[in-house]
Every structure is written in structure tokens, then in C-alpha cells.
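Sequence only, no structure available. Ideas?
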Amino acid sequence: MKITHGFFNKNGGVSSGIYKSLNCGPGSRDRKFKISKNLDIVKKKIAKKCKNIFLLHQVHSNKLVFINKNFDLKKKIKADAIVTDQKKIPIAVLTADCVPILIYEKQVNMVAAIHVGWKGAFKGIIEKVIRFMLKKGCKEKNIFVSIGPCISKNSYNVREDFQKKFLKKDIKNKIFFKIRKNLIYFDLPNYVKSQLKLMKIINIDMIKIDTFEKKNNFFSARRASKSNHGDYGRNISVIMIN
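Reply:
I predicted one. C-alpha cells follow.
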């Protein structure tokens, strides 16, 4: 295999309480040494020998960072997507209802990880990453995308102004909304998929697991908020060129 990748749920770590157990989010209020231990657990599952997992300070933007051979991996960067053609550097995004996207281009041997909330999707982060990869010599037909576990339309209740914003951008976006018992629901994963299709990406795999559903064992910001937890753990999604 040229790459190793995985979407991790909340199981298999050392954190406790509301962060139980594989919380990988340095931005959470969990104990730092536990987060570090959890990241080590994930790293060992990805590869015996590789650099530390590279994470961003995610800000719901359309910004990306490209890791080349001269890149300083200790840099803390505010962005929501990582692209690299370097081997043995696991790149990852953290989510808790947002969409994690992992991308692999088999000819150029390039990978990307994107954190896509509704803001990032609205601001065009997916298009930006694909365009960047194409500029680097990648071809649409050689790009393989996996859309990871995230909140589904049955769980994602939104306000009317949220819907208006999307309809104002493009009236065709109405297919991503449905009304049930006078409440509006938004289909974030399929909106994300449509963005990839607009970029002529055909190799798309979607993992249809709803992070909001408790039985699925994923951290969920929305579920934590409804339970008044005050904070929540983060799921990690990782990809690396071997």
C-alpha cells in the first residue's frame, strides 16, 4: 500500500469523563498528557516509524497549508486543510460533527486532509484544495476521496437564516435542506459531496456514520452541548504516504 489512513472513533484511548477515551484534541480542556498519549496510540496504529502527527489550529476557514521537504513541522498554523507529497508524515484533522475528508492522488502520490464544517464548505475550502492539487500536477481521475463520519441530515437542525444564506448563494442548494415537524435540517455530507463532484472528482467514498448518534461511538459537539457538558472530545482522521 502506498498510503495508510483511518477515521478513528472515541474508543481505545486513555482519557476519562466526557473525554472518554480517545480524545485527540489539544483544543479541548482534557489533561494535556492524556491527549498526547492518545495521539501516540493513533500514531502507532498508522506506522511503527513515522514523524509526529501534524495537526492544525482549525478555525473554520478556507485556508490550506502545503508541507514540502523544507517545512517546519513544529509550526502551529491556523488553517483547515493540509496537503503533502512527503513520506512518513501523518497529517490529520480533528472533528466532532464536522466532516473529515481524506484525499489521495495515486499518480503524483499526494495526500490531503480537510476539516469541513458548514463555514469551510460555504467558503469553498474543498474547491481550493482540489485546485491546489491540480496545480501541483494531480489529475481529477487519479484523485480518490473518502468522506468520513460526521453529523447527518437527520440530526443537523438549523435556523432559517442559515438556510437563507445557502439559498442566496445558490438556489440549487435547496435540495440539501428538508423540513420535518416545522424544523429545518441540513445535509452537510451530501453538500460536501456535491462540492467534490463540481470539481469533477468521481472516485468518492462516503462513510455513512452519524457522529451525533450515541450508539456510533464518536465525539459530537452538538450532543455534548445538548447534554450541557461544556466541552467535548475530538475524533481524529489521519492519512500518510508510506
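The domain at 3-151+204-241 is CATH 3.60.140.10 (CNF1/YfiH-like putative cysteine hydrolases).
Hope that gets you unstuck.
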